[in-house]
Amino acid sequence: MWIPYLLARVLVHGPWPALANPPPALPPWADRAKRAHANAVENLAVFAPLVLIASAAGAADAMIVLAAQAYLAARAVHYVVYVLGIPIVRTLAFLCGFTATLVVGWRILCMAA
């Protein structure tokens, strides 16, 4: 996810200015790609530990596998539509990924009870 906006920076400003600190401004689509990447990292920091906990606790059933697949698909769609600047689909994809995160958390809690 970081490659497109890094390449945009190099193509627009050249290799040496792209390495400057702070880096030069990005084109709008590349700026959206950078924000989409940051959003994906922030959400993965919650989702991944939940899946690992489910696996370690022996709670990884078909529902968790389906939630993980839905999460991956939703986050891929979210990245693409975020970069393209499509707002409503972006929100729906985010909500699908968030719902998948809630499902995994809920399944862990149900298995613990």
Task: Tell me what you see in this structure.
The chain has 113 residues and is mainly alpha-helical. It contains five helices and no strands.
Helix % is over 70%
Order of helices and strands: HHHHH
Which stretches are poorly predicted, pLDDT < 50 over at least 5 residues?
A: none
Largest sheet: none
Give the averaged pLDDT, no decimals.
91
State the distance separating the first and last CA atoms. Answer: 38 Å
Secondary-structure-based class equals: mainly alpha
Radius of gyration: 17 Å
- Number-wise, the strands total 0
What is the 3D form?
elongated
Percentage of residues in DSSP E strands: under 5%
Our count of helices gives 5
Note the topology.
Elements: H1 2-13, H2 15-18, H3 28-56, H4 62-84, H5 87-112
Properties at a glance:
5 helices; 113 residues; single chain; mainly alpha
Could you give a short description of this structure?
With about 110 residues, this protein is an all-alpha fold. It has 5 helices and no strands. α1 (about 1-15) runs antiparallel to α3 and α4 (about 60-85) packs antiparallel against α5.
